[in-house]
Design goal:
The chain has 97 residues and is mostly helical. It has four helices and two strands; from the N terminus they run αααββα.
Protein backbone atom coordinates (compact mmCIF):
# COMPACT_ATOMS: atom_id res chain seq x y z
CA UNK A 1 0.00 0.00 0.00
CA UNK A 2 0.96 3.63 -0.26
CA UNK A 3 1.88 5.84 2.66
CA UNK A 4 0.30 9.28 3.00
CA UNK A 5 3.21 10.86 1.13
CA UNK A 6 3.25 8.27 -1.64
CA UNK A 7 0.55 8.32 -4.25
CA UNK A 8 0.02 6.00 -7.18
CA UNK A 9 0.92 7.51 -10.52
CA UNK A 10 -2.21 8.55 -12.34
CA UNK A 11 -1.82 8.64 -16.08
CA UNK A 12 -4.32 10.48 -18.19
CA UNK A 13 -4.07 7.49 -20.50
CA UNK A 14 -5.05 4.97 -17.86
CA UNK A 15 -3.23 1.84 -16.76
CA UNK A 16 -4.47 -0.19 -19.73
CA UNK A 17 -3.25 2.21 -22.45
CA UNK A 18 0.16 3.32 -23.68
CA UNK A 19 1.11 7.00 -23.63
CA UNK A 20 3.01 6.89 -26.94
CA UNK A 21 1.47 4.60 -29.52
CA UNK A 22 4.47 5.20 -31.79
CA UNK A 23 7.28 4.36 -29.39
CA UNK A 24 9.89 1.86 -30.62
CA UNK A 25 8.21 -1.16 -29.04
CA UNK A 26 4.70 -0.11 -30.02
CA UNK A 27 5.87 0.52 -33.58
CA UNK A 28 7.21 -3.05 -33.75
CA UNK A 29 3.71 -4.29 -32.93
CA UNK A 30 1.99 -1.89 -35.33
CA UNK A 31 4.39 -2.80 -38.13
CA UNK A 32 3.45 -6.48 -37.78
CA UNK A 33 -0.24 -5.62 -37.83
CA UNK A 34 0.10 -3.49 -40.96
CA UNK A 35 2.49 -5.72 -42.91
CA UNK A 36 0.28 -8.75 -42.31
CA UNK A 37 -3.07 -6.96 -42.80
CA UNK A 38 -5.85 -8.31 -42.85
CA UNK A 39 -4.56 -11.11 -40.60
CA UNK A 40 -6.03 -11.28 -37.11
CA UNK A 41 -3.71 -11.91 -34.17
CA UNK A 42 -3.95 -13.61 -30.82
CA UNK A 43 -2.18 -11.26 -28.39
CA UNK A 44 0.20 -13.99 -27.28
CA UNK A 45 1.28 -14.63 -30.89
CA UNK A 46 1.59 -10.92 -31.60
CA UNK A 47 3.77 -10.45 -28.51
CA UNK A 48 5.98 -13.39 -29.42
CA UNK A 49 6.40 -12.34 -33.04
CA UNK A 50 7.10 -8.68 -32.18
CA UNK A 51 9.42 -9.51 -29.28
CA UNK A 52 7.40 -7.49 -26.78
CA UNK A 53 5.96 -8.48 -23.42
CA UNK A 54 2.37 -9.77 -23.48
CA UNK A 55 1.24 -7.08 -21.03
CA UNK A 56 2.70 -4.31 -23.16
CA UNK A 57 1.18 -5.85 -26.29
CA UNK A 58 -2.18 -5.86 -24.54
CA UNK A 59 -1.83 -2.16 -23.65
CA UNK A 60 -0.93 -1.28 -27.26
CA UNK A 61 -3.94 -3.32 -28.38
CA UNK A 62 -6.21 -1.48 -25.95
CA UNK A 63 -4.87 1.87 -27.16
CA UNK A 64 -5.53 0.97 -30.79
CA UNK A 65 -9.05 -0.14 -29.87
CA UNK A 66 -9.60 3.03 -27.84
CA UNK A 67 -8.58 5.09 -30.88
CA UNK A 68 -10.94 3.03 -33.09
CA UNK A 69 -8.10 1.71 -35.21
CA UNK A 70 -8.52 -1.96 -34.24
CA UNK A 71 -11.09 -4.23 -32.67
CA UNK A 72 -11.64 -7.44 -30.76
CA UNK A 73 -15.09 -8.93 -30.32
CA UNK A 74 -14.20 -10.06 -26.79
CA UNK A 75 -11.29 -9.90 -24.36
CA UNK A 76 -10.05 -13.30 -25.55
CA UNK A 77 -10.62 -12.86 -29.28
CA UNK A 78 -8.02 -11.93 -31.86
CA UNK A 79 -6.98 -8.38 -32.65
CA UNK A 80 -7.77 -6.99 -36.09
CA UNK A 81 -6.79 -3.65 -37.61
CA UNK A 82 -9.95 -2.04 -38.99
CA UNK A 83 -8.53 1.23 -40.27
CA UNK A 84 -5.03 0.68 -41.69
CA UNK A 85 -5.15 3.90 -43.71
CA UNK A 86 -6.09 5.91 -40.62
CA UNK A 87 -3.31 4.28 -38.63
CA UNK A 88 -0.78 5.20 -41.33
CA UNK A 89 -2.11 8.78 -41.40
CA UNK A 90 -1.75 9.00 -37.61
CA UNK A 91 1.84 7.80 -37.86
CA UNK A 92 2.66 10.23 -40.68
CA UNK A 93 1.39 13.20 -38.66
CA UNK A 94 2.77 12.11 -35.28
CA UNK A 95 5.47 14.49 -34.04
CA UNK A 96 8.90 12.97 -33.68
CA UNK A 97 11.23 13.95 -30.89
Amino acid sequence: MFTKKEQPLNSEHGPDLVANIFSKKATDIIRLLLVNYPKTWALRDLAKESGTAPGYTSRVSNTLINQRLALRSSARSELKIIAPEDLLKCRATFPTS
